[in-house]
Amino acid sequence: MQRAEYILVRFGELSTKGKNRNEFIAKLFQNLKKSCEEFDGLTFEKTHDRLFIHLNGCDQEAVMARASKVFGISSLSFAYKVNSVLDEICAKALELVSTMSDKHTFKVKAHRQNKQFQPNSDGINRAVATVILQNSELKVDVHRPDILINVEVSSPYTYIMVDKYPGAGGYPVGVAGKGLVLLSGGIDSPVCSYLAMKRGVFLEAIHFAAPPYTSEGALDKVKTLATSLSHYQGYMRLHIVPFTDLQLAIYKNVNESYCITLMRRMMFRIAKQIASKRRCKIIVTGESIGQVASQTLDSMQCINAVVDMPVIRPCACMDKLEIIDIAKKIETYETSILPYEDCCTIFTPKNPVTRPSIEKCEYYESRFDWESLLQQAIETTESVVLPLKSETEDLF
Ligand code: ATP
Ligand code: MG
Hints:
Layout: E1 6-10, H1 21-35, E2 43-46, E3 50-54, H2 60-67, E4 73-83, H3 86-98, E5 105-112, H4 121-135, E6 139-140, E7 147-153, E8 157-161, E9 165-169, E10 177-182, H5 188-198, E11 201-209, H6 216-230, E12 236-242, H7 244-253, H8 259-277, E13 282-284, H9 297-304, E14 311-312, H10 320-329, H11 333-336, H12 343-346, H13 358-365, H14 370-379, E15 382-386
Bound molecules: adenosine-5'-triphosphate and magnesium ion.
């Protein structure tokens, strides 16, 4: 492939968002710049319905890979710039397709942003096609071409694109506000994080650790996952809650079958308090209906009853295999399946209740002083910002 000078960034769904449009595009622009920070020398340019990344000699594949992860982008192309002069346009198009020896057919699709330019789009299509037909083996196929040559004529430059890469879709992270995700070391919670970020939610994460029952390795695994997820939004703040004392108190005072339900009510209460403190408007979890005893509708009702903020469960209606597919795509799967213990799994009762009642939860909770243990857990919560850097500004 020829070395490109630019990457052209298109944002599909965003263009239809009425008066929020400018705000969305500004956010996308900011996120794109932030996620490409590590590439020295890149510059960015915004036009009415496009963004351009000036590569200035940076590794074009690496920049493309990074930009493809930024939400709010519908597609991207390497772009080649020429003066808006018909001969130059034809010559560049020919030069580009000549390097694509494995392709057999093409189609030209010209678009004039500058309507003064002559000939019109149809005339440009014909002129470019004629030059390619005369100077290469390629044939025209208007229905299913191997190469679609996009020619965008502006003033004074024209951009030519011969490939198209899918963008990550969704909305720019941050436009929807901030949420708090319950991040375990499992497969589902990184996937639910990804799906929430894709809808524009900037996430902080909370993890419940039960040392010494859970190890430093288990915590490192969660940090690795949070670091992978941070690439979608620049950085991620992870709150690590010491959960052991509360958990032991539950196991001492509560009928075994209700332990998981109560533990999850405590998790939600703590999450709610930290979410409020950090100005997060929603809680996000990786729960999926029916997956385990604590995820039946009755269990969800008991667990949800302790919080008064929206709990979003992006994986609620997905099969495990669908969740795994996404985990593989976003490259969290291999980390998630590393065999470390989670605070939920080490205390798993043999027969967890599948149809708990709120009354019974409240009855068991009345048997011990969980409030002070809960406050203590919140007070001793530690936060780290990932990826680890000496200086990270908090944008939210
Ligand atoms: P996952 O694969 O995400 O661990 P799971 O199928 O193992 O999910 P559970 O262990 O019941 O299901 O957890 C359901 C959800 O509760 C998780 O997706 C996560 O959002 C949250 N959760 C569970 N354990 C923890 C933990 N130790 N810290 C933070 N959140 C947790
Ligand atoms: Mg889990």
